[in-house]
Amino acid sequence: MPTILAHRASNIPAPVRYPPPMASKDNAALEAMIEEATADTDGHEDERAGLFTMIEEHLAVPFTTTVLGVEATVRKAELAADNIVAVCARGRHRQRIDLLDLPLLTPAPDGAAWIDAYRHWAGR
Question: Which of 20, 36, 38, 93 is most enclosed, with most CB atoms within 10 A?
Answer without folding.
Answer: 38
